[in-house]
Write a structure and sequence with these properties.
With 358 residues, the protein is of the alpha/beta class. The protein is built from 15 helices and 12 strands.
C-alpha cells in the first residue's frame, strides 16, 4: 500500500497493511542539536529529517497551492537588531521583539488588529476571496501527490486561532464579551473566504483531507467558554464541512494543543472528526476514545516527556498505546514537535519500538 492508501484507510476506520509511520516534526533547535548526535548535516528541514528516517509525514504530506488566510501573506521582516535581540514583523503581521536564538516567547509590541480600522484594512488588503494568486495549479499538485503515493491536503484555515494571533489573546478575549458583533463579523468573513476556496479549488480533485489550525486551549481547558464556542463557531464549521463533503472530503483534521476535552463534542458535531496532536499530558487519548467511540479519530498522543526520560519510559509509552493502535482509527506520533532535550539515539529507539505496533 502507498502512504495515501494507508492514511485513507485509518481515517475511515478500515485496516491498512500497517498504520502509517507519521511524525509531527522537530523544532529548529532540535535538528541543530541532533547534528552533533549523529543526524547527517544535510538534514536541515523537517521533511529532510523525516525522509532520512523513512517516515511518511506529517511534513512530507503536500498542501494544495491554495492561499487560505492573508493574501499576499505576511513575510517575516527584521526591523531592527539591538543588544542580542531583534525587532521583527512576524508571519502574522505582528511587531514583536525576539532573542537572537528565537528560543523564548516573543514580547509583542503591536498587533495586526488593534482597532476596527486595522480590521478593515486587513480585510481589504489581504483577506479578499478574489485576490489574485489565491489558487495555484491545484490539478497538477494533486496529480503529483497521487503519483508519489501521498495524501492530498487542503488548508481549511481557522476561525479562532488567526484572530487570536492578529489581536492578541487578551484583546481578543475581551472582544468576545464586549464586541461580539465585531467578532462574529470577522469569523463570518473567514468562513466565507474558506467556502469560496473550497468551491473554486476542490471539485474534481479527489482530495483526501482538510487540515484546520485552532490553538484555542491551554493546559486546563479552552481559552473561551464551550457555550461561546458552540454559538459562534460550530455553525460556521458545519457550513464549511458540508461544502467539503460535497467536494469529496470527509476527513477533517483539527490541530489544537492543550486540554481539548470540552471542545471535542462541538467539533465532532460540526463534522471535524480527527484530533491532532492530542497532547497526552493534558488530554488522555484513551479517555477521548472511550467518550467518543466510533466517531473520533486521532493522530498523535505519544507523550514527548517519555522520549526525554529515556528507553524505559519509551517502552512504557509504546506499551500503553498499543491497545489504542489495535482498536483502529488512530495514528501514533509524538504529541508536538520533538524538543531538543530528546537525544537523537533515544528518538531512533522510539521509532524502532513504535514500528513494532504499527
Amino acid at each position: 500500500m502507498t502512504t495515501r492508501e494507508r492514511f485513507r484507510r485509518v481515517l475511515h476506520w478500515e485496516r491498512p497493511d500497517r498504520v502509517p509511520n507519521m511524525e509531527f516534526g522537530y523544532w529548529k533547535k532540535t535538528i541543530e542539536v541532533w547534528h552533533g548526535q549523529g543526524l547527517p548535516p544535510d538534514c536541515e528541514t523537517n521533511a529532510e529529517v523525516e525522509r532520512h528516517l523513512g517516515l511518511e509525514g506529517i511534513s512530507i504530506i503536500p498542501t494544495l497551492p491554495v492561499q487560505n488566510g492573508p493574501c499576499p501573506p505576511f513575510a517575516e521582516k527584521v526591523i531592527e537588531v539591538r543588544g542580542g535581540r531583534r525587532i521583527i514583523r512576524n508571519e502574522d503581521g505582528v511587531l514583536c521583539e525576539m532573542t537572537e536564538s528565537d528560543t523564548s516567547i516573543p514580547r509583542y509590541l503591536r498587533y495586526t488588529i488593534e482597532s476596527r480600522a486595522d480590521w478593515e484594512r486587513l480585510r481589504r488588503e489581504r483577506l479578499d476571496p478574489e485576490a489574485p494568486g489565491r489558487i495555484g495549479n491545484v490539478a497538477a499538485a494533486a496529480a503529483e501527490a497521487r503519483a508519489a503515493g501521498l495524501p492530498v491536503r487542503f488548508n481549511a484555515g481557522s476561525l479562532y486561532g488567526w484572530l487570536r494571533n492578529w489581536m492578541g489573546l487578551e484583546a481578543f478575549s475581551i472582544a468576545l464579551l464586549t464586541e461580539r458583533a465585531w467578532v462574529e463579523e470577522m469569523m463570518e468573513h473567514l468562513t466565507i473566504l474558506t467556502l469560496a476556496l473550497v468551491e473554486k479549488a476542490l471539485p474534481g480533485l479527489d482530495a483526501d483531507v482538510a487540515w484546520w489550525w485552532e490553538d484555542m486551549a491551554y493546559n486546563h481547558g479552552p481559552l473561551l467558554s464551550p457555550r461561546l464556542f458552540r454559538e459562534l463557531m460550530v455553525p460556521r464549521y458545519e457550513r464549511i464541512t458540508a461544502a467539503l463533503r460535497r467536494a469529496g472530503i470527509d476527513a477533517n483534521i483539527l490541530d489544537c494543543d492543550g486540554r481539548i476535552d470540552e471542545l471535542v463534542p462541538g467539533w465532532i458535531e460540526a463534522g471535524i472528526n480527527v484530533m491532532f496532536p492530542v497532547e497526552s499530558i493534558h488530554s488522555d487519548p484513551f479517555r477521548l476514545n472511550e467518550a467518543h467511540q466510533g466517531r473520533l479519530l486521532m493522530i498523535g498522543g505519544v507523550n514527548k516527556m517519555a522520549l526525554i526520560e529515556g528507553r524505559r519510559a519509551i517502552d512504557r509509552e509504546i506499551d500503553r498505546l498499543r491497545p489504542l493502535v489495535e482498536r483502529g482509527g488512530y495514528i501514533p506520533c509524538v504529541d508536538h514537535r520533538v524538543p531538543p532535550d530528546v537525544d537523537y539515539v533515544n528518538y531512533l529507539y522510539y521509532l524502532e519500538k513504535k514500528d513494532r505496533i504499527l
